[in-house]
């Protein structure tokens, strides 16, 4: 007599729980396929469409690095809601679910991989309105949350103590609800701390009221019947990327600059994008055509240097919208540092030169971030920072490690032993992280340069 396997029963149950209209074929078991299938949801930090139409984010990079290590291709199954993603995993429609949090009452249904990050869920509010002190201040207000998330479970637990607490679970993302909150359409929402920090770069009137429960661990999720070989390979992968710094590098790539700007900085930048940038845009376009560096990055650097003031002058004698020294201006053949066009084109060419001087093995985006630091403090001090990184067992090709050594160049015990001497290396870190943040905002509101735009050459 033929028996039904537990794995097949789980597939049936998973599909029934998810409300499937039809049964989808489960993925082949790990070890029998050339494809790693990842189930996830869209998220502004973890998994999103970039300006080139492809995917980016922490989830995407971790998954593709893991698949590369295994010699497999990746395929992403993107669900609308986290509960649907978990149901799809139970139905064996993917090998791993990533970028999700599981409610405590469902933990028994899954197996969890290693923890790689902690996430705090938070109540967000519009700072033009009074800040709520606790959940009682949410009663009678318009609170919307994305349906199918862990937020529903946590709010339901609070509701047992506050029966009058109400909210509306809607079929949309936290990112969209944060926009509605910023526009004062709703009074409160719930999102994770990274989403709120990122959204505040675009909508500075967003704020955090208080936390919703304890922080949760971010980890990959497997069905109860996942192959032990896959679980083992995952453990080995995370051991490796934690040891060699890959994980910290990826976390810094997406999250490292989210703390840099204050609300006032963002408000001024948004205002200046409307009032000042239109008169300078053509020069930034020309700079990209000349150097192949994204015009939005050049504009972000220019803003950090001078607030887009062509007449800016520092106490040390650097001048112009790109704050060029006399030596750099002479090297770039600039006749007038206070001429916006000359300064922008020269600054972009100088940044390009610095990027080219770095060792070829340094990859993006670290190559750009390190070049920005060199723009601020000079290439020689970057050589010293990289030398120091080697001495203290850090990686000289990674920006996340140079962020640690650059500030040390102002301390006598370090700069006395290096070739180029003392410098205010911490300022290079501040500039680079600020430019990264402004660049994010530029990419949000301004499209990339079209190659067919007239008048560039």
UniProtKB/TrEMBL annotation:
Belongs to the transglycosylase Slt family. GO terms for molecular function: peptidoglycan lytic transglycosylase activity. Residues 35-258 form the Solute-binding protein family 3/N-terminal domain. One of its GO terms (biological process) is peptidoglycan metabolic process. CDD domains: MLTF-like (cd13403). Its main location: membrane. Keywords: Cell outer membrane, Membrane, Signal. Gene3D superfamilies: 1.10.530.10, Periplasmic binding protein-like II (3.40.190.10). It comes from the Bacteria. PANTHER family: MEMBRANE-BOUND LYTIC MUREIN TRANSGLYCOSYLASE F (PTHR35936). SUPFAM superfamilies: Lysozyme-like, Periplasmic binding protein-like II. It is a peripheral membrane protein. It is found in: Cell outer membrane. One of its GO terms (cellular component) is cell outer membrane. It holds the Pfam family SLT. It comes from Nitrosomonas cryotolerans ATCC 49181. This is Membrane-bound lytic murein transglycosylase F. InterPro entries: Lysozyme-like_dom_sf, Solute-binding_3/MltF_N, Transglyc_AS, Transglycosylase_SLT_dom_1.
């Amino acid at each position: 007599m033929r028996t039904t396997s537990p794995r097949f029963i789980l597939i049936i149950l998973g599909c029934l729980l998810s409300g499937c209209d039809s049964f989808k074929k489960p993925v082949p078991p790990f070890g029998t396929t050339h494809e790693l299938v990842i189930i996830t949801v869209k998220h502004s930090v973890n998994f999103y469409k970039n300006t080139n139409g492809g995917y980016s984010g922490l989830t995407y990079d971790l998954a593709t690095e893991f698949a590369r290590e295994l010699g497999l291709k990746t395929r992403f199954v993107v669900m609308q809601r986290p509960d649907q993603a978990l149901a799809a995993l139970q139905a064996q429609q993917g090998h791993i679910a990533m970028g999700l949090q599981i409610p405590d009452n469902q933990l028994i249904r899954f197996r969890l991989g290693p923890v790689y990050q902690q996430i705090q869920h938070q109540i967000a509010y519009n700072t033009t309105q009074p800040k709520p002190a606790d959940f009682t201040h949410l009663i009678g207000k318009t609170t919307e949350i994305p349906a199918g998330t862990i937020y529903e479970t946590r709010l339901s637990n609070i509701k047992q103590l506050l029966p009058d607490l109400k909210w509306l679970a809607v079929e949309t993302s936290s990112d969209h609800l944060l926009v509605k909150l910023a526009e004062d359409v709703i009074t409160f929402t719930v999102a994770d701390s990274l989403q709120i920090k990122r959204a505040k770069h675009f909508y500075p009137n967003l704020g955090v009221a208080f936390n919703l429960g304890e922080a949760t661990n971010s980890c990959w999720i497997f069905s109860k019947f996942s192959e032990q070989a896959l679980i083992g390979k995952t453990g080995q992968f995370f051991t490796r990327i934690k040891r060699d710094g890959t994980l910290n590098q990826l976390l810094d790539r997406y999250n490292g600059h989210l703390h840099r700007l204050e609300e006032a900085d963002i408000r001024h930048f948004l205002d200046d994008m409307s009032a000042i940038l239109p008169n300078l845009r053509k020069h930034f376009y020309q700079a990209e055509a000349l150097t192949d560096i994204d015009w939005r990055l050049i504009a972000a650097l220019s803003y950090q240097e001078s607030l887009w003031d062509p007449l800016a002058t520092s106490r040390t004698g650097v001048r112009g919208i790109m704050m060029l020294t006399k030596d750099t201006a002479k090297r770039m053949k600039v006749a007038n540092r206070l001429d916006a066009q000359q300064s922008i084109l020269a600054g972009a060419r100088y940044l390009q030169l610095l990027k080219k001087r770095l060792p070829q093995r340094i990859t993006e985006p670290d190559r750009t971030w390190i070049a920005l630091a060199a723009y601020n403090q000079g290439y020689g001090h970057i050589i010293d920072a990289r030398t120091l990184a080697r001495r203290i067992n850090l990686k000289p090709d990674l920006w996340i490690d140079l962020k640690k050594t650059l500030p040390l160049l102002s301390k006598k015990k370090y700069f006395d032993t290096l070739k180029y001497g003392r410098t205010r290396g911490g300022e290079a870190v501040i500039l680079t992280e600020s430019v990264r943040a402004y660049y994010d905002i530029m990419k949000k509101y301004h499209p990339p340069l079209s190659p067919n735009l007239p008048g560039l050459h």
